[in-house]
TrEMBL record:
Keywords: Phosphoprotein
Name of the protein in its database record: REC domain-containing diguanylate cyclase
PANTHER family linked to this entry: BIOFILM ARCHITECTURE MAINTENANCE PROTEIN MBAA, DIGUANYLATE CYCLASE DGCP
PROSITE patterns: GGDEF, PAC, PAS, RESPONSE_REGULATORY
Entry coiled-coil feature ranges: none
Alphabetical list of SUPFAM superfamilies matching this protein: CheY-like, Nucleotide cyclase, PYP-like sensor domain (PAS domain)
SMART domains attached to this UniProt entry: GGDEF, PAS, REC
Listed InterPro entries: Biofilm_reg_signaling (IPR052155), CheY-like_superfamily (IPR011006), GGDEF_dom (IPR000160), Nucleotide_cyclase (IPR029787), PAS (IPR000014), PAS-assoc_C (IPR000700), PAS-like_dom_sf (IPR035965), PAS_fold (IPR013767)
Modified positions (4-aspartylphosphate) in chain numbering: D71
Domain PAC: 220-278
Sequence ranges assigned to domain Response regulatory in this UniProt record: 21-136
Domain GGDEF: start-end pairs: 311-444
Species, as recorded: Chlorogloeopsis fritschii PCC 6912
Domain PAS intervals: 148-221
């Protein structure tokens, strides 16, 4: 039975198109009236109060409230928890649970494990205001994140979510059009078939099939998030990165009757993440590792050196001689092309396990791993200088350069990567002072 209905909102909470609309589901009449008056006083619009859950979904469909306050202890054909799940998951409307301390302690419900998701009776007007504001704010942030995710998915092919519904035996009952597009299967081909016969999910890292998702969800009665590295193999054999969740389907009595899979193509998001990761560790011009990645590999080499007594490595710090003159004469565009050509030449001088990085401008660093002694580093330095002396032809011009190189060896007992790099830099400046086109091995006496 409905206790009250504010078809014409009372002042001072006069109706406003911008005022959040709130639906109250509470069977304690005095408390319900108190909540309504308090919310209206705070400027919210309370358009309805229900004392049971039976009409809740219908009213939510009709009015699309901004927030639903519901007593978690209400019973009926549909429980308040089930109604709340439908409101949150189907209509994407936030729910704030109302409970008392005894029920809160006794139930230990999962809903109470989420912070700011409930309010305990008795509560003050201030407590109510804070709880409502936090619930609305959380929902606003959640919607913003969802909108951004949908925007990224829309860039790919403007498809929405794919939905696959199974029965208690994990046999397919429904496959919506988006799921048919995503998987390559038509609904009439898969109805009644076991999910594992149709939907092939693979762990990209291990290569193993993920076959027990629905069984796990049905047995545990919990929502399962798809692994971040989940791959869908379509009917045609195409591999697509997917994400989202698998959730249990419950009847009016809370009994699990099947599962619903929500699948979203996250290929574009993965590509974007991979590109962002690449940008964080690689130079945008030359595609060489940058300072951050170089220091990380240098740190790993130091750790390796501590574990293996006979493991040695060296760092070469390079600065091109006369690069400023190329920029001044031919412009920065030509200078950038020149640096790219230099990067390729430096790579050609190294083994596959070594690292050459650009530190910015015309500065480069090289990490030579697992060398026998200083002679290996010297040989690489000479090879680099010989290679750089060869002319580079760009846009009809012949460009020449040399490099000053400083060498620092791991045998000096370094503990920090930056110290080794610092000493290689110091040796490089010594080489430049001695006439450029030269290399110097760092000696502690140079300090």
């Amino acid at each position: 039975m409905r206790l009250a209905k504010t078809s014409e909102p009372d002042k001072p909470g006069a109706f406003s198109m911008s005022a959040p609309k709130i639906l109250i589901i509470e069977n304690e009449k005095i408390l319900a009236v108190y909540i309504r008056k308090s919310l209206q006083k705070l400027g919210y619009t309370v358009f309805d109060i229900l004392d049971s859950t039976e009409e809740a979904i219908k009213r939510v469909t009709e009015t699309n409230p901004s927030l639903v306050l519901i007593d978690i202890c209400l019973t009926g054909t549909v429980s308040s928890v089930q109604v709340a799940d439908i409101i949150q998951n189907t209509f994407q409307i936030p729910v704030l649970f109302i409970t008392d301390y005894s029920e809160h302690s006794r139930l230990n419900h999962n809903k109470f494990k989420e912070p700011f998701n409930y309010i305990i009776k008795p509560f003050s007007e201030k407590d109510l205001q804070i709880a409502v504001e936090i619930a609305l704010y959380k929902h606003k942030i959640h919607k913003k994140l969802q909108a951004e995710q949908q925007r990224l998915l829309s860039i790919i092919n403007s498809m929405g979510c794919a939905v696959v519904v199974t029965d208690i035996n994990a046999c397919i009952q429904i496959m919506n059009p988006e799921a048919q597009i995503l998987t390559g299967w038509q609904e009439n081909e898969v109805l009644g078939k076991y999910l594992v016969e149709v939907l092939t999910l693979v762990n990209k890292d291990t290569g193993e099939n993920i076959n027990d998702l629905v069984t796990q969800v049905i047995e545990t009665n919990t929502v399962f998030r798809l692994p971040d590295n989940c791959i869908l193999v379509t009917k045609e054999g195409t591999e697509i990165a997917i994400g989202d969740s698998v959730a249990p389907i419950r009847d009016n009595f809370g009994k699990v009757t099947g599962a619903v899979l929500i699948l979203q193509n996250i290929t574009h998001r993965k590509q974007t993440e991979a590109q962002l990761l690449h940008n964080a560790f690689y130079d945008g011009l030359t595609a060489l590792p940058n300072r951050i990645l170089f220091l990380d590999r240098l740190k790993q080499a130091l750790e390796h050196c501590k574990r293996r007594q006979n493991y040695h490595f060296a760092v070469l710090f390079l600065d091109l001689d006369g690069f400023k003159g190329i920029n001044d004469r031919f412009g920065h565009g030509m200078g950038d092309d020149f640096l790219v050509a230099i990067a390729r030449r430096l790579e050609s001088c190294l083994r596959s396990g070594d690292t050459v990085a650009r530190f910015g401008g015309d500065e480069f660093a090289v990490l030579l791993e697992d060398i026998k002694d200083v002679s290996d580093a010297i040989n690489v330095a000479r090879r680099i200088q010989e290679t750089l002396r060869l002319p580079i032809y760009l846009n009809g011009y012949q460009l020449l350069t040399t490099a000053s190189i400083g060498i620092a060896l791991s045998s000096n007992g370094y503990e920090e990567p930056r110290n080794l790099l610092r000493d290689a830099d110091t040796a490089m400046y010594r080489a430049k002072e001695q006439g450029k086109a030269n290399y110097i091995i760092f000696d502690e006496r140079q300090n």
